[in-house]
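Illustration: Di-/tripeptide transporter.
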Amino acid sequence: MDAQDGREPEQIPVGPPDGAAAAAATAGDGAIAADSSGTDAAAVTATGGQGVTDTRFFGQPRALATVFGVEMWERFSFYGMQGILLLYMYFSVSDGGLGIDREIATGIVGAYGGSVYLATILGAWLADRILGSERVLFYSAIVIMAGHIALAVLPNVWGLGVGLVLVALGSGGLKANATAVVGTLYAAKDPRRDAGFSLFYLGINLGAFLGPLITGWLQDNVGFHWGFGAAALGMAIGLTQYSFGRKNLPPASRVVANPLPRNRYAAAAGIGLAGIAVVVLGVVTGVIQPANLAGIVIVVTLAAAIAYFIVIIGSQHITAVDRSRVFGFIPLFIVNVGFWSLYQQQFTVLTVYSDERLDRTIFGWTMPISWVNSINPVFVIILSGVFAAIWTKLGDRAPSAPTKFGLGAIIMGIAFLLFLPFSGGGENSTPLIAIVGILLVFTIAELFISPPGLSVTTKLAPERFHTQMVSLYFLSVALGTAIAGWLAQFYNPDDEVPYFTILGLIAIALGIALILSVKPVLALMKGVR
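Result:
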């Protein structure tokens, strides 16, 4: 226990995170699992859970298979769609695409990715105040499937707009609550908890691996809409099996932690409708348009993050120690934004690079572009166990969270500099093995910075602001993802050296600055490592 406040020390992650989603869920108790999802639902597992007698799913509760399945198929559909999304937008109409300017298309992808993480805040709020985690998960899966169907069957930019809005909202809701539901399957001291989360994250990365393979092959051979259709079918399979199994989930998964009083429903609905009206008015008047979408998401996310910090730090309900810890979180927030602004370019710059620079020919056969997106999940599956073993072996000698964040940013910057030896080459000039190596470095950086992210966030959070602090973490990912899309407009395949050099060095500088500041940051964190 930490001497200063009695909190548990940071737990060792046992499975790969879904990017930022639920990165802390592998910590040791139900409260941490709840925090990792942005909801409080899993905190009831101290009295709930299915007990050690249910071992029907690889030694885990049978109900884990239900959540495992829906999450695996959701990741299949999410990454399958995202693997071909940018190509669909900037490929010419004659090639089956929409013919959108590539710079605008990359901005849209970034704005969409940022919106997914913004939507986790809405999903967490709905779970905490109105529906509970399990119901939000179920309804979110339906919304996701509807979004993929829209992409598959609706024509032109209308299908793109409707589809991306629905998938972003649904994915945010599912991402915010799936981990909380898993947490309710175990009693607080159930020794199988960590292994169960490891199995859960295996499903996440299996879906992320398979999705781009299937949708990419379909896009390459029969067209984009067949790929989007496969994503819709995958989500339908996941939703169907979840529909049959959800009745076996424990009542704790449906608990509404902080019910919204009935007399405030109308006000909440009014705020929601007003928000929708503002967006519609912005689109109609031309204030919101594809060319500036990433910038708008950046501004909105930054404003929300600043507001959250002001509310938490200025609260009279937190102690001086709590306030200091929130200040200690600010450097981690900044470095996390920088990390994700580079890491998420897998779906923007790396897609363009794979299209124009990468030699994808293997023994006379040309690999689909989107298959590059299946490389990272393989490395995550392999290396997450290695990292868990290393941190376990090091024990108290393991690096602190600020050190891990700093190292993650430095390694991410190095990954960008590794593009330089191949810069300026012509079509098919970069060997496939080079991208495999670079993505290996991407993954190592991710495992330094992503698994500890939400874990340390929940430890730094004041008691009254657990959900808000988790929301802040998701806002850092949303901001970084939107910036990734905005930055991609400056990528020029004909002049790559400045782009990779500047961004790589900025990331390295951020990491070094944090490592040099570890002592004062740890002092602000008041015993939390």
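Reading the tokens back as a structure: The CA atoms of residues 267 and 273 lie 10 Å apart.
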